[in-house]
Amino acid sequence: MSESPLELARAALASQAWAEALDHLRPLLTEPDPTLAHQATRLIAQVPHPLSVSALVGALDHSEAPIRLTAAEGLAQLGDRSALDPLLQALDDPEPAVRQQVVTTLKALDAEAARAQITELLSWERLPDQLRLGLTEALAGWEESGTVEVQS
User: What CATH number should be reported for the domain whose range is 5-140?
Assistant: First the structure.
């Protein structure tokens, strides 16, 4: 019996074969089984590789909220500032918990740069309503310590 892609990825992670692990994990993000996609997202966040960042950025658009949430958490873990712009766009997520995690991740990656970008984006006239709401919530809660409350 052959090993599943998830088992192969775990073995590659154990031996620190990052590219091989990602080769097994990235296709799982599009699996119809959300549990499998969620597990893959969690494992990708443990891989210190530039392709991990791009995979998690892509997962910010997943149809399942728990996967989007885990992707935002993973981006905070990886700490790569190249995720700032995609995270700002993710502030239009329909799920408050995802938006809250995105704000937490933005603060962890580069609070000053993210705040400046949010302020600039809010000055745009043709900003979609959902994104404007997410940006406004993020900016309103910026000074708070701990978590940011977002509206549902």
Answer: 1.25.10.10
